Amino acid sequence: WNIFDFIIVALSLLELGLEGVQGLSVLRSFRLLRVFKLAKSWPTLNLLISIMGRTMGALGNLIFVLCIIIFIFAVMGMQLFGKNYFDNVDKFPGGEMPRWNFINFMHSFMIVFRVLCGEWIESMWDCMLVGDWSCIPFFLATVVIGNLVVLNLFLALLLS
Prior knowledge:
The protein is mainly alpha-helical. The protein contains six helices and no strands. It has two domains: 1-41, no CATH class; 54-159, Helix Hairpins (Orthogonal Bundle), CATH 1.10.287.
């Protein structure tokens, strides 16, 4: 722990020496690492930190599965609805393409990520404006499969 304290103090002194330089507020965040020293005297925090450390390997697998799910739904959305956005751009207010669309993979990926975060209504209405009712099963499948699979995998990870 003495080496840990030395590193924290050295970074703090470095920050004080470089006070006029912009963008070094990141060094202040290293002071927050001192909280981990409490784990020695606080058994519950020690238990939580050890559980988090043991699950880091399996968390990589969970992130990999999540990326595959997002990739699959992004490609499906791009193939099913991407052309509709080009053909019906005049249906949007002002005749402008909405920011959230299925035109290319990046935008499709961002929409699927947004759906998994719970903000899917606006994107679904835009999709229904240019397409038809086939957007509803796609968005519902994305919400159900994405959220439930990720939730179940995460709970299984925590319980193991």
